[in-house]
Design a protein that fits this description.
Blueprint lengths: L3 H7 L4 H11 L5 H10 L2 H4 L4 H4 L9 E3 L6 E6 L2 E9 L1 H6 L1 H17 L4 E11 L7 H24 L3 E8 L8 E11 L14 E6 L9 H4 L20 H15 L4 E6 L4 H13 L2 E5 L12 H6 L5 E6 L4 H10 L3 E9 L3 E6 L2 E7 H6 L23 H5 L3 H9 L8 H4 L10 E3 L7 E5 L4 E8 L2 H6 L1 H17 L4 E10 L6 H20 L4 E7 L3 E2 L2 E2 L3 E10 L16 E7 L10 H6 L12 H14 L5 E4 L4 H13 L3 E3 L5 H5 L5 E6 L4 H5 L7 E9 L3 E3 L4 E3 H18 L1
Parallel strand pairs: 4-5, 9-12, 17-18, 24-27
Antiparallel strand pairs: 1-2, 2-3, 3-6, 4-6, 7-10, 7-11, 8-10, 9-11, 12-13, 14-15, 15-16, 16-21, 17-21, 19-20, 22-25, 22-26, 23-25, 24-26, 27-28
Helix pairs in contact: 7-8, 7-10, 8-10, 10-13, 19-20, 19-22, 23-26
Length: 734
């Protein structure tokens, strides 16, 4: 092959990779085959840098129906139903083209859910940007990116009729060159009507359904497996363009298809398009496949086999049908005005054989492509030397500041301020099952009409903690989403993750990744929240600057009685306020929001989590939820901000009856919450704390029209203006 060196470079393949390809094929590859190997061996598809650290994740429990390895994970939620969920990243495309990138990220994760036979019923997102308050080109860029991403998420989800009910948005300088867009969707399925991504049964037809294939998204998987630089502006053609109206038709057509015994398996054409879907379906079953690429529905003239295999055009599925059912399948998709074409069949050859107008144009053995894909044991640092360049946090400077000034700064910051400008662009009430939506604080909740229960879900990542101590930060991320669910009166059953990191060729990034995985494993095991699905996004780096390690964790749990969902707002006069915390709780300013916004550095010792105490807190909340009126987590900004937000949302003042120091007001630590209850119920709680890992202390009372935190006294209406209006003012005034 001429210009082999240049071709390999364009496909992000090394000479070592090429040698392995020669061994597998026992001949020289053609360009189509190089493109296929490039896509399937990309970081995005093969997990070659991360695979060795993902082994050992807890993935099983009696309530887990499907763990990692399929399109999404599934847990049993009772009554013969399962919850199907997963989270994935669409970071690189969203930075290049925010609307289309975010929209197709939402579309892709929804297809992963309904491919399993489930109807999507709720979505969350975790989105992260640079500092939007800057009055310079970077600030303007990220305000533009925020607007585009939010419009893309809202536009696609709203058209699909799937409520977006919660999420997390944060702003850090480390995301200036690489924003993060992580999308989560959950669906409901009957446990005896689950479908899997498999192709088996010699002679069974392979059917293409959905939109026609174009050239959009070519090389998307490979693009997402590299860092950004100034030349990345030319990558816009690698971003897919979605059509939610077509996806809605595809969803309904697939759900109709699933009601009939017509198919063996089904797979979304996601990253690497027809290549990944066909190889994965055949690979899971040890089968072979013949594809006639000239039969693929096309929307552009002159398309080549190479383009058809690697296009990432959206809203497409690949089916393995039962032989003899072709006509019935064609009728369903024709009714929904979708393209549907028989493009191949299952074989027992163990090979992928591609034809173009009856001429074989590529042939690759399927098992070796995946089984012999590169597994890299990249160099790894032994410590976080990147922290040496950061000045240490000056605690004295922080605690000597005016507490009113700290309070105001935190409450109106984009990290804390209400995100109504974002979530009001999302339809949260469609399908009429939403019990707790965005803006309520903590976990979001939907009713499951099929069994009378409710599902609580939350997404979080304490990014500054993960930067300072990746293992500890990861543990606290898992604990945070489970605590949010417990504060709704539910119990977390499983998690999905989206592991966002910088360049894996940097030994310190690989150290961060290893430490993060160890933290997730430890927390998931002790907290009994197995990992049932997930995603890895590497190369989030621009011009040698890596993002903070950002392991976004989404948790899902069950509330047995939907009518007894706990609220996260303080809205009832004269209730008493209690601080429930681990006895081991040691507050710190290290990695805190107060340190970020009001001090010279975030670098300092962070508060560590006791996972046994965390589990005890979940158990305690479950046992006492009948005595509680409402409850909130203490997270960013410490007790002062957690209490104030709950009062602001509940439109009621409060008064602390215990004098608290600056550290007690704004310091941060895991495993601590604020409870609101009637005074006569105090003993019912205290009786459960004998020989416990937890402590309970009365700290205040609800009522009035002021937020009275001792040295900090703010009229409720002023606090509400700061909280509800600040983000919109930033976006409209700059």
């Amino acid at each position: 092959m001429e210009n082999l060196k240049q071709i390999l470079k364009q496909h992000k393949l090394t000479q070592e990779d090429y040698t392995k390809i020669l061994e597998i094929l026992k001949r020289e590859p053609n360009l189509i085959e190089i493109g296929i190997f490039s896509a399937m061996w990309s970081e995005h598809c093969s997990y070659k840098s991360s695979k060795i650290y993902l082994q050992g994740f807890p993935t099983k429990a009696e309530w887990v129906i499907q763990g990692p390895g399929e399109n999404a994970g599934i847990i049993d939620i009772g009554g013969g139903y399962g919850a199907v969920f997963k989270m994935e990243s669409h970071n690189h495309p969203s930075f290049i083209e925010p609307y289309a990138g975010a929209a197709t990220g939402v579309g892709g994760i929804m297809r992963d859910i309904f491919t399993m036979g489930a109807r999507p019923v709720a979505s969350l997102n975790s989105i992260r940007f640079g500092d939007i308050t800057q009055k310079n080109a970077i600030g303007a860029k990220h305000r533009y990116l925020l607007r585009g991403v939010v419009a893309g998420i809202g536009g696609y989800g709203n058209c699909m009729g799937v409520p977006t009910i919660g999420g997390e948005t944060s702003f850090e300088d480390c995301y200036e060159g690489n924003i993060l867009v992580n999308a989560f969707t959950l669906g409901i399925v009957k446990n005896d009507e689950i479908f899997y991504g498999r192709a088996e049964g010699s002679g069974n037809p392979v059917i293409y359904v959905g939109s026609k294939t174009g050239r959009d998204g070519l090389g998307g998987a490979v693009m997402s497996s590299d860092s950004f630089s100034e030349s990345s502006k030319s990558l816009r053609p690698t971003v897919q363009v979605g059509d939610p109206f077509t996806e809605k038709l595809l969803l309904e057509a697939c759900l109709e298809l699933f009601k009939k015994d017509l198919i063996v398996g089904i797979q979304d054409m996601g990253a690497a398009g027809l290549t990944s879907s066909s190889f994965e379906m055949a690979g899971r079953s040890g089968s072979g496949m013949i594809l006639h690429l000239d039969k693929v529905p096309m929307r552009e003239a002159g398309m080549t086999p190479y383009e058809l295999m690697l296009s990432e055009s959206q809203e497409r599925m690949l089916l393995c049908a039962k032989k003899g059912c072709e006509k019935a399948i064609l009728e369903i998709f024709n009714k929904w005005e979708l393209d549907c074409a028989i493009i191949g069949e299952v074989t027992q050859s163990g090979k992928m054989e591609l034809f173009w107008h009856n001429q074989k144009c590529a042939e690759i053995p399927i098992a070796p492509l995946s089984e012999e894909s590169p597994i890299l044991n990249r160099p790894i640092s032994t410590q976080a030397t990147y922290l040496e360049a950061i000045p240490a946090l000056d605690y004295n400077t922080l605690i000597q500041q005016n507490p009113n000034a700290i309070f105001t700064t935190l409450l109106k910051s984009p990290d804390i301020a209400d995100k109504k400008w974002i979530y009001e662009q999302y339809d949260s009430s469609v399908q009429t099952n939403t019990i707790v939506r965005s803006g309520s604080g903590g976990a979001s909740v939907i009713r499951v009409k099929e069994n009378g229960k409710a599902l609580a879900m939350s997404v979080a990542c304490p990014i500054r903690l993960c930067y300072l101590n990746p293992k500890e930060g990861a543990k606290q991320a898992v604990a945070k989403v489970g605590r949010d669910i417990a504060l709704r009166g539910g119990r977390a059953l499983a998690i999905t993750d989206c592991l966002n990191f910088g360049n894996p060729e940097n030994p310190e990034v690989m150290w961060q990744f290893k430490e993060t995985c160890e933290g997730i494993k430890e927390a998931a095991k002790i907290l009994q929240t197995p990992v049932v699905s997930g995603n890895v996004s590497l190369y989030n780096q621009t011009n040698t600057t890596d993002i903070y390690p950002t392991p976004s964790i989404a948790g899902v749990g069950i509330i047995d009685n939907a009518n007894k969902t706990l609220r996260g707002k303080f809205d009832t006069q004269d209730l008493c306020l209690y601080h429930l915390a681990a006895k081991s709780c040691q507050l710190s300013f290290g990695g805190s929001l107060a340190a970020k916004l009001c001090a010279n550095s975030i670098k300092g010792e962070i508060a560590l989590i006791n996972l046994e105490a965390e589990l005890a807190l979940w158990d305690f909340l479950q046992k006492t939820s009948c005595y509680l009126h409402s409850a909130v987590d203490i997270y960013q900004g410490g007790l002062a901000i957690a209490l104030s937000k709950a009062c602001i949302i509940g439109n009621l003042g409060c008064k602390l009856t215990k004098k608290l120091s600056i550290l007690e007001l704004f310091g941060e630590a895991p495993t601590q919450v604020i409870l609101a209850l009637k005074a006569q119920n105090e003993n019912n709680l205290l009786n459960l704390l004998d020989n416990s890992l937890l402590t309970l202390e009365k700290i205040g009372i609800l009522g009035g029209d002021e937020i009275d935190l001792g040295e900090i006294i703010v009229p409720l209406n002023k606090a509400q203006r700061l909280y509800f209006d600040s983000l919109e003012q930033i976006l409209e005034s700059l």
